[in-house]
Design brief:
The complex is a heterodimer of chains A (649) and B (102). Chain A is mainly β and 649 residues long. Chain A contains eight helices and 35 strands. In chain A, strands 2, 4, 5, 6, 7 and 8 form a six-stranded mixed sheet that branches. Chain B has one domain (11-101): Immunoglobulin-like. Chain B has strands at 11-14, 18-25, 32-38, 44-50, 63-71, 75-85, 91-101. Classes of the chains: A mainly beta (649), B mainly beta (102). The interface between A and B is large, with 50 and 39 residues. Strand 1 of chain A pairs parallel with strand 2 (18-25) of chain B.
Chain lengths: 649, 102
């Protein structure tokens, strides 16, 4: 620790130069310093942590590349098996990689964009947020933008206050982390006032794992992801400009400025350096710095790792549609939830997110449904909510608490001449966001309805648009094309000519616009999402639209090239057999695999998924028409799974 | 005026051979630092000193750097203070300090 500096010290320094300090300043007065960004509560000293049992600490991952790495490192656990694979891969015991850089690993980037904490001393909030964002991409395969302000102000810090990773871990594990729409980053010490639906739009975060041993820190980076670190900043750090490894100058005039937190996104034994993400905007090497091993206290304290994140429904809202939804439930926080209709009743199903991925039925309710409901997770405490067309040609809303329990009747609404499958999303108008529904009516048009986000929860018709519509489907998306601060509503429906037609509505004029038509011979409802293929990071470019629809007993997969800006719909693949209708589509945690549910011609549901090798046929489940559903217990199919990995729902 | 320059005087008097210390509200956590340039160093000199962490740690304070103004000979000069980042051209704050030495 540097010597204390007070007025007495300064008086001596100046006296040595023949200068007399003004006499009215008391010698004992400390020349105070704000401690950069990290306060004096440093992480645990590295040597006090000892080695940890990585194989025991690490949770199952759905990241297929990491499964391979863990196998090579001998860190395999059974529930890490990739989706659809049943064979037990051989255990390895190989050495860790000599260099890892999560900015360019397994063929892509896993780190969110560089941010700027300026002018606040909030490096700790930025390092913590960057860690959560990176681990969501690695563990759950999606980009998201979370709020440093939610963490900074939630902890109760002012702009000038330093803080520490221990407080970050405590806050995140107690309260999670929300998005900027809930509470953004402020630099004006605004009183913390997140939106009322914060609990339903927060990523749930376990406590950090402290890793003291430098070799194990590298193993963690190789097998799991980035880690957050303390670092002593000296004056010469400001001038780092990239292209070399930072080693602090030993010039006595190069004073320490205080502690700082960074995110370590990799390491390079060849250069003997950590690869670190800073939060000073376009500083250094495009926001990054290579810090030499052991330099400026970087290895003196334990570093913080994170695993086992539980994503929220809000930041994944564009990644699912129809009757299939990937929730945060289950041991690995990636259970599938599904609903289906048999003889007017709705049955909810779920699939455990770890091998061997058993499907099980859950609850049966309602008696007036005509076909598979459109299901989503909402910011109302992670509720599951659904809408379907009734036998009386209206729409019916049901909801269930996110953690389980019975389904509750949300009431009947909508046009009296409903004649299609509804699209249903929670939008970004208000917080909690309004519900938006678009459905075909008997006159061959499309009706847009919305529900306000508070009592009396009134549903209202907003518009009718389109013409000669034969089928609507769960193909309503509020995408990330922002206009007036809100995402455009996007929809694809089927015309009476058998083509798919894209419609969109912007905030700018509030009018639904006719978009292009594509495809032919379509005679069933389409399902559409906005996925994240084509994105470099959470900032863009726009992710592609993905659409699946049944044609002639098979599934056609279409996608619109948003990432390149061409906006052209392209046909990707035709696959499957005995398909009556595609009812659900998800881009989920399993390495951005596309997952669909189809209703087969015999009434059963069937799961298909697409990975890098193409589309794969999954299991069928549920009853054939017209029998009532057969309820299975998940334990019926738990033949290989470590049952301790399943948490009660 | 801004949060960074609140409390800084517009004018300062200092004797020849004397020094006056002004605490500067800093933003070092985000990479900012104060710099000072003098119109006439023959009248007064200015120097920004970084104050390392005190022992025991002081409560969080917004004073991270100090400006030492030393009188050299009688006269008037102006010190131009800038708070910003070395890699950026925009400043977080600027302040002109008139110094009377007598």
């Amino acid at each position: 620790m540097p010597e204390p500096r007070n007025i007495g010290w300064l008086r001596q320094v100046l006296a040595a130069q023949g200068v007399t300090l003004r006499a009215d300043l008391p010698d004992h007065q400390v020349i105070t310093q704000h401690p950069l960004g990290a306060d004096e509560t440093r992480p645990p000293v590295a040597s006090t942590i000892g080695r940890i049992d990585l194989a025991r600490v690490l949770l199952p991952t759905a990241n297929p590349q990491l499964v391979t790495r863990r196998l090579a490192l001998g860190l395999h656990v059974v529930a890490d098996q990739p989706e659809g694979e049943g064979a037990e891969p051989p255990a390895g015991g190989g050495a860790r990689a000599s260099a890892v850089d999560w900015r360019n690993r397994f063929g892509g980037n896993w780190i969110t964009s560089i941010r700027d904490q300026n002018p606040c001393s909030s490096c700790w909030a930025f390092a913590g947020t960057a860690l959560v964002e990176a681990m969501l991409k690695i563990e759950h395969a999606y980009w998201t933008r979370l709020s440093e302000g939610d963490l900074h102000d939630g902890v109760g810090s002012r702009c000038a206050d330093g803080n520490n990773l221990g407080n970050v871990s405590t806050f995140l594990s107690n309260h999670g982390l929300a998005d900027p729409g809930c509470w953004p980053y402020h630099t004006d010490d605004a009183a913390y006032a997140p939106t009322s639906d914060r609990n339903g739009r927060s990523v749930r975060v376990p406590a950090f794992t402290w890793i003291g041993d430098v070799e194990q820190q590298k193993q963690w980076i190789d097998s799991t992801g980035p880690i957050a670190t303390w670092f002593d900043v000296y004056q010469d750090f400001d001038g780092y400009s990239g292209g070399y490894v930072y080693r602090r100058s030993t010039d006595p005039d190069n004073h320490e400025r205080g502690g700082h937190f960074l995110l370590v996104v990799g390491y390079d034994d060849g250069q003997q350096a950590w690869i670190c993400k800073n939060s000073w905007g376009a500083w250094g090497d495009h926001g990054y710095v290579l810090v030499g091993y052991g330099e400026a206290g970087i290895d003196q304290y334990a570093k913080a790792g994170l695993t086992g994140l539980n994503p929220d429904p809000w930041t994944k809202r564009r990644l699912h549609n129809g009757n299939l939804y990937e929730s945060g439930n289950g041991a690995a926080h990636r259970n599938f939830e599904a609903v289906s209709v048999h003889s007017g009743a709705v049955t909810s199903y779920w699939r455990e997110g770890t091998s061997p991925f058993p499907w099980a039925s859950d609850k049966t309710f309602a008696a007036d449904a005509t076909h598979a409901p459109t299901l989503t997770g909402t910011t109302y405490d992670r509720n599951l909510e659904l809408v379907y067309r009734t036998t009386g040609n209206r729409l019916h809303h049901w909801w269930r608490a996110g953690g389980g329990g019975d389904w509750n009747d949300g009431g009947v609404f909508g046009p009296t001449d409903t004649a299609g499958v509804p699209g249903f999303v929670q939008g970004d108008y208000g917080a909690p966001g309004n519900f938006e529904v678009v459905v075909r009516t008997a006159d061959g048009r499309l009706a847009h309805w919305w529900r306000i986000d508070g009592a009396p929860w009134t549903w209202q018709e907003s518009a009718r648009f389109g013409a000669n519509i034969a089928y609507s489907g769960p193909s309503l998306v509020q995408g990330d094309y922002l206009d007036g601060g809100h995402g455009n509503l996007e929809l694809v429906a089927v015309t009476t000519a058998g083509a798919l037609q894209h419609f969109w509505r912007s905030e700018h004029d509030g009018v639904w616009h006719d978009g292009p038509t594509f495809g032919a011979g379509v005679a069933s409802p389409p399902v559409m999402i906005q996925g994240q293929y084509g994105m470099h990071d959470e900032a863009g470019p726009h992710g592609n639209f993905e659409l699946c629809v049944a044609v002639g007993g098979a599934v056609q997969h279409w996608w619109r090239d948003n990432a390149s800006g061409s906006m052209v719909w392209r046909s990707s693949a035709t696959f499957g057999h005995d398909v009556a209708q595609v009812v659900g589509l998800v881009e989920g945690s399993f390495g951005m695999n596309l997952e669909i549910l189809v209703r087969r011609t015999n009434g059963q549901l069937q799961h298909w998924w697409r990975d890098g090798a193409g589309w794969h046929e999954g299991p069928t489940f549920g009853p054939t028409d017209p029998r009532r559903p057969v309820v299975r217990k998940p334990t019926d199919v738990l033949t290989k799974l470590d049952t301790h990995l399943i948490r009660p729902r | 005026m801004s949060r960074w320059t609140d409390g800084l005087p517009d004018t300062l008097r200092v004797g020849v051979g004397q020094a006056v210390v002004l605490p500067l509200t800093g933003a070092v956590g985000a990479g900012n630092s104060w710099t000072a340039t003098d119109d006439d160093a023959g009248v007064a000199t200015t120097e920004v000193l970084l104050a390392p962490p005190a022992t025991p740690p002081a409560a969080s304070s917004e004073a991270s750097e100090v400006l030492v103004v030393t009188g050299v000979r009688p006269g008037r000069t102006v010190a131009h203070l800038r708070l910003g980042r070395s890699w950026e051209t925009t400043d977080l704050a600027r302040h002109d300090l008139a110094i009377d030495v007598g």
